[in-house]
Each structure stands twice: as C-alpha cells, then as structure tokens.
C-alpha cells in the first residue's frame, strides 16, 4: 500500500530522533509555561525545561496519569486559551469525571494527516467506500478515522454504531468496500450475516480497520474468515488524540507503526515505572510532541505492549508497537501468578470448539483463591455428545494449568451469552468478598 508521507515514514532514525528532540523541548516548554499542573510538577522535581538536552532526558520528566487529566476537568490541562481551541472531545463516563481533550486548528490538521497515514498503511485508497461504524459524539474514533479517510479521498459513510441490520443493508446498497469499527462489532455483523443467510457475494467488503479494544490474532483470523476480508489493527488513546497514533501495514501486519514524529513512546514496568528495553512487554507511556492545546508528558496509558525499533519490510522506519495484549488494570495476581485475559485467550485459540470469548471470575474462599474461566463454545457442542464436551473441558483445564501454572475451574457456556461489549475480562471478586486488597 502507498506510504502516505514517505519523507517522514521512511526517515532515517538519526534524523527522526533529532526532530523528536527538538519537538520534545518545545513541548516541555509549552507544558511548563501554559499548564500550572506541569509547572508545579517541574518545580517539585527541581527541573527546568531547558534541562531536557537529549531524548534520554525524557526520563527526568514526570509521569501523567488519567487521574491527573481528570483533576484538570474541564480546561485546566489546556496550554492555550479557549479561543484557540477549535474542537473538544471527552469520553463521557457515568461514574467518573471525564478527561477532556482539546484541539487547536494545527492539532486537527495533524490529526487528519496521522489518521490518513494509518488508514493508508492499513490499505485504504481513494477508490474505497468506507463505512464508519463507530459512535460519533464525544468519542474520538469515528471523527478521527472519518477525517483521515476524507483526506485520502475515499467515499465516507458516517453510519455510526447501532442496528446491525442497517449496517448490512447499507453495506449491500452502497457497495461498501471498507469497514471501520470495533472487532466485537465486526463479529456481530459477521454473525448477523450468517444468521440471515446473506451470501458473501452480495457484499463488496474487502478490508476492515478495527480497533478501540484489544483483540487477539484468533479473533482477527475469525473475523477475516467470516467476513471474507483482510483486517488491520490500529491504536489510539482518546485522552490524548483519537486514531492516528499507530497502525499496522496491510502487507506484513507485524506490529503497529507509531507516528513517532508526533508521539514519543516508552515501555515501562507497570509497578516500578522503570523504563524497559525494546522487545520487553510493559505499559505504554506516550509523550505528545506537537499537541498545542493539550501537551501531555509521559502519559501512563495502562495498555500492555512492547516496542520494536527495527525498520519494517514495507519500507517504513517508524518503530512498531506490538498489538495491545491487555490493560494493566485487567491483570490480576492469583497465588503469585500474573494472569491476563490475553494469555487465556491464547490458550483458547488452540482448542477446537471454543469461541474466543471468555470471562474469568476470581473468588476467595477462606485463604484460598479460586479461579473460574467461563468460555463460550461453538453452537452444537453443548447439545452434542456429553463425552466430547467433557473432553473439551478437561483439555482446557489441563492446558491452562500447563501454560499459566494455574489450577482453574472451567465452565463452558453457550455461544453469545457473555457480554460482547467487553468480550474479554477478569472479574476479581476477592476484594468485595474478603475486604482484603487482593491485587497489585
Ligand atoms: Zn510495515
């Protein structure tokens, strides 16, 4: 697929790092001058922006957490007066204070360009008809990819999320070739197509850019097979900027190319905050390099991934991040063993008859922690031969014990009974049951 901005995306690393350093210095200054929160953090550390002289000095800068952003609600984290802000997004929760992301005219221009790069790497061209199935509104996904697709020149249909039947009708009538949405929504569409017996030949769909939630290779394989498309992953962090942070190239699908001229990425140990080497998995930390309205230093994303600085065979020299394998707050420790939904899903993918949907319940009975893994099975398995069902159950129990070192109860449930909006999750009920803190 064509490289949207070859000058930047194939830039020698030495030049890229020089550009990053210059922009980091500007960003540190902007944060120090424009945001009282950062001024206080710098002062507490005895640090001045001019002490940032190399990219390694990044480590001297303070971390920013989601709670920090929330405490600035609504406008305290902005580094420019409101009259310079031309767009405001805020993922609206029902129980917590939202984080508010502002964009200046330049920020929006950059966002368009970055979304175009990610879409172009994924495989979108101006000949495509692209259906945006993300919810519009205060969230960033729909708007980000919408404006990137327009920049490329594709025909954009802003369907938004909603009734699956409507998606399918539009897909057929408008001859949609590209789908944008969450992986779980793509699966819902695939399931609805199968249920209604809609022939694949009535669709022109060839590609999907999916994201907004972690999804495994097994889920990707399933979506690609059921929808008959090629699906690529991309990453965004709404608190900072919508889609455009990184995305896979369609040719290799081997890590997400990070737009490093706008985002400086580190991987840290989620517990100690220590910076980890390339290849090691830890928490992604992002520093914005060009954001004017909302410069953010060392943002703790809580997303687990690793970095690969090696150039890709597609020609891009930008470092790649591995597909996000989970969230630091999804990880629990049971009997000294760290478990994440991604690890469990990897085990599921090797066993025939299991769907890539599970829920993990962690309970405490007396001093003993008990883990139950609930897994959806393919239709037919539950109503079929009982011996076959028990064999699958035992197989999963043994594989979990062998792979994770974890003795877990296994419960097989009917397909589509677990919550698809959060298809993979761990429910830690130890705190509410025992009153003791049970995880780090
Ligand atoms: Zn590539």
Care to describe what's here?
The protein has 440 residues and is α/β, with parallel strands linked by helices. The chain has two domains: 327 residues, Rossmann fold (3-Layer(aba) Sandwich), CATH 3.40.50.12780; 104 residues, ANL, C-terminal domain (GMP Synthetase, Chain A, domain 3), CATH 3.30.300.30. Helices cover 32% and strands 24% of the residues. It has twelve helices and 21 strands. The strands form five sheets. It has a nine-stranded mixed beta sheet, sandwiched between helices. The chain has a four-stranded antiparallel beta sheet with strand order 10-11-12-15. Strand 6, helix 9 and strand 7 form a beta-alpha-beta unit. The chain is globular and about 70 Å long. The relative contact order is 0.11. The C terminus is likely disordered. Zinc ion binds next to loops.
Describe the secondary-structure layout.
Layout: H1 6-9, H2 13-34, H3 36-45, H4 66-71, E1 85-89, E2 101-104, H5 105-122, E3 129-132, H6 141-152, E4 155-157, H7 164-173, E5 178-181, H8 183-196, E6 207-210, H9 217-227, E7 230-237, E8 241-248, E9 256-258, E10 263-268, E11 282-288, E12 299-305, E13 307-308, E14 320-321, E15 326-327, E16 332-334, E17 337-339, H10 341-348, E18 354-365, E19 368-377, H11 386-404, E20 409-413, E21 424-428, H12 430-434
Parallel strand pairs: 3-4, 3-5, 5-6, 6-7, 18-21, 19-20
Antiparallel strand pairs: 1-2, 7-8, 8-9, 9-14, 10-11, 11-12, 12-15, 13-14, 16-17, 18-19
Helix pairs in contact: 2-3, 5-6, 7-8, 8-9, 10-11
The structure holds zinc ion (ZN).
